[in-house]
Design brief:
With about 150 residues, this protein is an all-beta fold. The protein has strands at about 5-10, 10, 20-30, 35-45, 50-60, 70-80, 85-95, 100-115, 115-130, 135-145. The N and C termini lie far apart (about 45 Å). The mean pLDDT is about 90.
Length: about 150
């Protein structure tokens, strides 16, 4: 069996304001070692047009020998746009230092009926080499999804 103890707290500013921030420090056990970190987001609402956000997640992990301590960052800006009451676009960029990976994700959502949506999602993953001097394509995908609410 395995047991561990983690702790943390969350602070969010007033969600009714145009600028909102969240902070969540964490600390505790991780595997046979310890973890300390902080995560959160800064979001600016553009009223009925959407929002701009920057998310972050930092973890410092220290395990027992033979492992070396690791600092891992996950950062990403996000854009949410509302064109009409039924048409939305979300764009997300994310960089992960653990895998030296960049992910670009774009989603178009059309709400054609209540609780019924059609999504088109394009995602692109890159390996980063040489301090962003080269991007090697890891994988790409184009996905369509349809959800429909059956009211029986």
């Amino acid at each position: 069996s395995y047991s561990y103890l983690n702790g943390g707290f969350n602070f969010s500013s007033n969600p009714l304001k145009n600028f909102v921030y969240e902070v969540e420090p964490i600390f505790g056990q991780f595997g046979n070692g310890s973890i300390a970190g902080i995560k959160g987001a800064f979001t600016y609402r553009l009223m009925q047009y959407g929002s701009l956000a920057m998310t972050y997640d930092y973890n410092y992990i220290k395990l027992k020998a033979p492992f070396k301590p690791a600092s891992i960052w996950l950062v990403g800006p996000k854009v949410d746009l509302t064109f009409t009451r039924n048409l939305f676009l979300t764009g997300f960029f994310q960089y992960n230092t653990q895998l030296d990976n960049v992910n670009i994700n774009t989603r178009l959502q059309w709400r054609f009926a209540p609780v019924s949506d059609f999504f088109i999602v394009y995602t692109n993953n890159y390996l980063v080499e040489g301090q962003f001097s080269q991007f090697a394509v890891r994988n790409r995908a184009l996905v369509a999804k349809l959800t429909y609410w059956l009211n029986l």
